[in-house]
Amino acid sequence: MEPLPYLTADLPGSGGSLRATPEDFRVDEVPAYQPSGTGSHLYIRVEKRGRTTREVLRTLARALSVPEREAGYAGLKDRDAVTTQWLSFPAARDPDPGSLSAPGLTILAVSRHPNKLRPGHLRANRFEVVVRGGDCSPARACAAALAERGLPAFFGPQRFGAQGRNAAVGRALLRDERTPEALRAARDRFLRRLCISAFQSELFNRWLAERIADGLFAAALRGDVLKKLDTGGLFTCEDPAVDGPRVARFEVSPAGPMFGHKLRPAAGEARAREERVLAASGVGLGDLARGGGEAEGTRRVARLPIAVAVEPVQDGYRARFELPRGCYATVVMRELMKAEADLGGDAE
Predict the structure, then answer these.
(1) How far apart are CA 348 and CA 328, in angstroms?
(2) Of residues 10, 24, 28, 78, which has the active-site annotation?
């Protein structure tokens, strides 16, 4: 994977290290809605430590005698952290919450709701991240710069798998290359979707890195697809003199390409920039069509408002912030720390 640029490259980082203990990396899911209290789906709010969301789903599904594939979640949370989130199960009975606790798993609440939780059914994630051995002063300076400049909505390393290979496998799937990894992914629907999404994410990162390198991070180009940050509505920029100030004020943001065969196209110069990124990948529109429902394409906000509170703690500092769903705490922390190694994965 190509290294990503720092938006705060003009400022020194704090240094330090993450995840001395799972408690140093806390993630609390902010749901899109609260369970209503009635319905066919059992909703369980859990706190987990040292376990993945899928491991917890498997444990609870087995305890409730529910097929794992019918369990629901809004987002995947990291293993090496303390995290809270709602999970759903089509269970007929209301269990004793105490009977569901297990090592690394605490039941916080139980309720019911008419529908299954699905990926994306969350508003945001709240993070509390402790950096051991880090210098609080430069971290605060970087946080202030991000508040003014915005946060690049890069995909973090979690998106690309432990070895960073998922994007390459996704590219092979789209090009119908019968490599051993691609053949294995083709037989697993979850893995196929994951790898194709990783390839789309890699190209989005390249597109955004080029915008930053060219001084266009907080600009509107004629033909850009722009997204309203309050409503999510999309429109095409016809007059940069009108829309550029709106970008600067965090009213709208350029919406970068998650390439697919149904992607809303940009126009003019903005379209040419996107087409160059796709062409350089060796994947064409016909290849994207081969991806079917996993490669329809969408638009992702490129620039986000961010407020990071930094406070000193023993042997380091704590950073508190909230991110919309699909955004990565490691993108924030690499700006504060100016570190690439050992950032690990985080909530999505």
Answers:
(1) 6
(2) 78
